[in-house]
Specification:
The complex is a heterodimer of chains A (334) and B (290). Chain A is α+β, with helices and mostly antiparallel strands and 334 residues long. Chain A is built from 9 helices and 19 strands. Chain A folds into 2 domains: 226 residues, Rossmann fold (3-Layer(aba) Sandwich); 97 residues, Beta Barrel (OB fold (Dihydrolipoamide Acetyltransferase, E2P)). In chain A, helix 2 packs across helix 3 and helix 2 packs parallel to helix 4. Chain A is globular, with a radius of gyration of 23 Å. The chains are: A alpha+beta (334), B mainly alpha (290). The complex binds adenosine-5'-triphosphate (ATP) and magnesium ion. The site of adenosine-5'-triphosphate has 11 residues of chain A, from helix 1.
């Protein structure tokens, strides 16, 4: 079980309110990702749930019981830190055993769980090493192993992959997703990488300055961002937000169109512009186009083999049914 | 910079400094060793015949020698014990956020800046004196008989004074070690269900191991040669109750004017200090590598 409910939770450090009153429900078995720009309060929110910070006001319920005043150990949650926070002077085995030892668990049961976790995480050959003798990915797996053996009600991850190189990050992302499928335990995952959020989450919580901007499944957020902030944050490359004349044609303040929803042509189209930088990724080409009024540059996604040069004139046609409209307050207009 | 020519040039250029330092160290050492084999008493001027190991035999068989050895051990061991345990506790306290932290830290460090003679005299006259000392007054106001520290518990009194002087050093080193402890490790341990004591025992103390090693190593080297505190408080007495090896050498060579005997004691002290140093390095040097 791992249902977590935040009710009117608020957090201030001195005079600075980092998280204004906030409500959030996390269902049992859900993979929830908190995403937002740096400094928006993602870690603080996670630490509030973990019990490492006290709430200024509001209540946190875990499985229906009030856990606001409970110390971290009593909440039955396990956390994986960005810096891994392994105990450097203990072997991998002792690191993984530590929470069970603190709980006074029976020795045979400890051994059984260590073996199971090591097998699941490919750590069997490294059990007698110190954390200092492991690679970043292996350390990350030890940290996850230490969390798994407690069989917690929920896992909390604070940017666990940000210290890994790109290839390893993709690998670990899958491993964590698979782990979630296998354990079926609630996971709360903090990241500022929207690709991680899109690929892993059942539910994404987009935060800005401590305020929840939108909660929903990755595709909901992609298809119908509630406001300009979410529109710009979810999706890569970012959605193009166009103001002025072109937006007025659609009867609103701002329109948004994703790079992948614009057709590029060298002969004809609605809008006209000149090619700036073209990023060739092989599979796709992202072209930055200048000269479209109200948005400079405008990014479009074209075919990987497209041959355009700096300074070429191109014509663009947005797909009409995929244009997002936003009002004066930046909120979505249906 | 690592060409052959530059390396030999470098060697040539540092050689005067090396020779000077070596001479500085070796000449007094050799002279001490040389004197230790002579019968050389300033009260009997004249020729100083070579007497072989006689000085050593007399020095070692002197009943005050074994007493001095034991006193040295007790002094070093006692001070190490008090300063490391006390240092850990002070460091824990000072690491807490509190009002007036800067001022309190300076005050805790202050004894280290007081000269040993001054510190010892202050303790002797203002704290431990049975008539004028604060401890005496406290004892009297509680209706107890004041303790005459330097006659009833002389060695312990010296241990206390020296500990007071070295506690700041231990605290300072251990405090910096505490501050370098990754807070996330403590938080992880907290999430893992470790009580405060368990966090201290399993996380903080192992993290401090290296700093404790440094404290023990450095303090041992200095504590083996404690002298001023003894000279100004007890003069090695009563009897030989507070005579350590350094003080015994001082007694032989300067109070009894026996340069030969004093030198023999000096050589023994050098050998002992080296044995201790090698032993310590072996035992805890491993800690420094990891
Ligand atoms: N102990 C603290 N005292 C005062 N302010 C704090 C404290 N911890 C965090 N803050 C402030 O709270 C805000 C949110 O911090 P938080 O660490 O939650 O951000 P974040 O979203 O996790 O950012 P990042 O993606 O960079 O990790 C920041 O503005 C930060 O300065
Ligand atoms: Mg953070």
């Amino acid at each position: 079980m791992g249902r977590i409910a935040l009710k009117q939770v608020q957090k201030s450090f001195g005079d600075v309110t980092v998280i204004p009153p906030l409500d959030l429900e996390i269902d049992d078995g859900e993979f929830v990702v908190f995403v937002g720009p740096s400094g928006c309060g993602k870690s603080t929110l996670l630490r509030l749930i973990a019990g490492l910070e006290d709430t200024t006001s509001g209540t946190i319920e875990i499985d229906g019981t009030d856990a606001t005043g409970l110390p971290p150990a009593k909440r039955g949650l396990a956390m994986v830190f960005q810096s891994y926070a392994l105990y450097p002077h203990m072997s991998v085995r002792k690191n993984i055993a530590f929470p069970m030892k603190m709980a006074g668990m029976d020795q045979a049961e400890q051994e059984r769980r260590i073996a199971a976790a090591a097998k699941a995480l490919n750590l069997t050959d490294y059990l007698d090493r110190r954390p200092g003798q492991l690679s970043g990915g292996q350390r990350q797996r030890v940290a996850i192993g230490r969390a798994i053996v407690r069989e917690p009600a929920a896992f909390l991850f604070d940017e666990p992959l940000s210290n890994l190189d790109a290839a390893l990050r993709v690998g670990m992302r899958m491993e964590i997703s698979e782990l979630h499928k296998k354990l079926d335990t609630t996971m709360v995952y903090v990241t500022h990488d929207q690709v991680e959020a899109m690929t892993m989450a059942d539910k994404i919580v987009v935060l800005q300055a401590g305020v929840i901007e939108q909660v929903g499944s990755p595709l909901e957020l992609y298809r119908a961002p509630r406001n300009k902030f979410v529109a710009g944050f979810i999706g890569s490359p970012k959605m193009n937000l166009i103001e002025g004349e072109l937006a007025n044609e659609h009867g609103c303040r701002t329109i948004g169109i994703r790079p992948e929803h614009v057709e590029v042509s060298t002969t004809e189209g609605q809008w006209q512009g000149t090619v700036g930088i073209a990023e060739h990724l092989g599979s796709d080409t992202f072209i930055h186009i200048h000269g479209v009024p109200g948005c400079d540059p405008l990014t479009v996604r074209a075919d990987g083999e497209v041959s355009v040069r700096h300074g070429d004139t191109v014509f663009l046609t947005p797909r009409q049914n995929l244009i997002h409209r936003f009002d004066d307050n930046g909120m979505r207009i249906e | 910079m690592a060409t052959k020519a530059s390396r030999s040039a470098a060697r040539l250029m540092i050689s005067p400094a090396v020779v000077l330092l070596l001479g500085w160290m070796l000449i007094p050492l050799c002279m001490t060793v040389y004197f230790s084999f002579l019968r050389f008493n300033l009260l009997n001027p004249g020729d100083n015949p070579f007497v072989g190991w006689e000085n050593y035999r007399w020095f070692v068989t002197d009943p005050s020698f074994s007493a001095a050895m034991i006193n040295t051990l007790v002094l070093v061991g006692g001070v190490l014990l008090i300063t490391t345990i006390g240092g850990i506790m002070f460091a824990l306290l000072l690491d807490q956020p509190m009002w007036g932290q800067g001022l309190i830290r300076i005050m805790v460090i202050a004894p280290f800046f007081v000269m040993p003679t001054v510190g010892a005299l202050v303790w002797k006259n203002m704290f431990m004196n049975p008539v004028n000392g604060i401890f005496g007054h406290i004892a009297q106001s509680l209706g107890a008989a004041p303790i005459d520290f330097f006659s009833s518990i002389p060695l312990l009194s010296i241990v206390l004074i020296v500990s007071w002087q070295w506690l700041p050093f231990a605290t300072l080193i251990l405090l910096t070690a505490f501050q370098s402890l990754d807070q996330e490790q403590l938080e992880a341990a907290e999430m893992d269900g470790a009580s405060w004591f368990n966090r201290f025992w399993y996380i903080m103390l192992p993290h401090l191991a290296r700093a404790i090693t440094v404290v023990i190593l450095i303090q041992t080297i200095f504590l083996l040669s404690i002298f001023a505190e003894i000279l100004v408080t007890t003069n090695g007495g009563p009897g030989v109750a507070t005579t350590n090896l350094t003080y015994l050498i001082y007694v032989s060579s300067l109070l009894q004017y026996d340069v030969g005997m004093g030198s023999a004691g000096g050589v023994i002290a050098i050998i002992l200090a080296n044995i201790v140093a090698i032993f310590l390095m072996r035992m805890i040097g491993k800690n420094l590598d990891a």
